[in-house]
Specification:
nine-stranded mixed sheet; single chain; 11 helices; about 240 residues; globular; alpha/beta
Length: about 240
Amino acid sequence: MRRVSVIIPCLNEERYLADTLHQLVKISPPPYEIIVVDGGSTDQTVEVAKRFPVKLILSPQKGRAVQMNAGAYEAKGELLCFLHADTKVPSSLVLKIRSALTDPKLVLGGFVSVMKGDGRTQHFTSWLNYVKTFLSPLLYRPYRYFFRGLRLLFGDQAMFCRRIDFRKIGGFDQNLPIMEEADFCLRINQLGHIRQLADVVYTSDRRVRDLGFWKAHALYFTVLILWVLGASPHWLKRKFYKDVR
């Protein structure tokens, strides 16, 4: 039976990490291992992680790509799942990943991301997240969309792949400050198809709430379109983001 390693990059996630880990250790069958990679938190994130049966890695450098790579190269499982610290997964997570990756043509998968917070669901945001998985590659690389199974997945979709395929393409590009998951999709698509499963994961809507509904969607849409048109992720980061975890 193939083992699943769940990798969680963290930076100041004390508010959300405990709930996520509490749920992960209770799902059945459980992941083979849970790896928390901290990027230098100044809150109680590390202390929270130590309360759970996880492998804790203290990364000397912050950045999602750096931290996810660090976790992936320490992982012992044959299958890898990259999870946000504020995302809740289905109880059948391990079974869904194993089942999906029995397809030899599939090299990368993810779930439908539904954003929730304060007792409400961000239906429009969740719908946009679903649509952009298909629309972005359709506009960006139509040939690969139709003939190579290209889809664009993002971090809040609990992306998963085989460890061997991850290493074949060299993991995430640590030089990218944003759009590292989209870049990863483009490169791993050279090995096979990408699929979004029908199953749902629930992610906090905190970024939409913090920025405001209209500002958040204008920002996400603008960054995605400019990236599709060829804008540098470094320029996009400087132009539109104060900081990126």
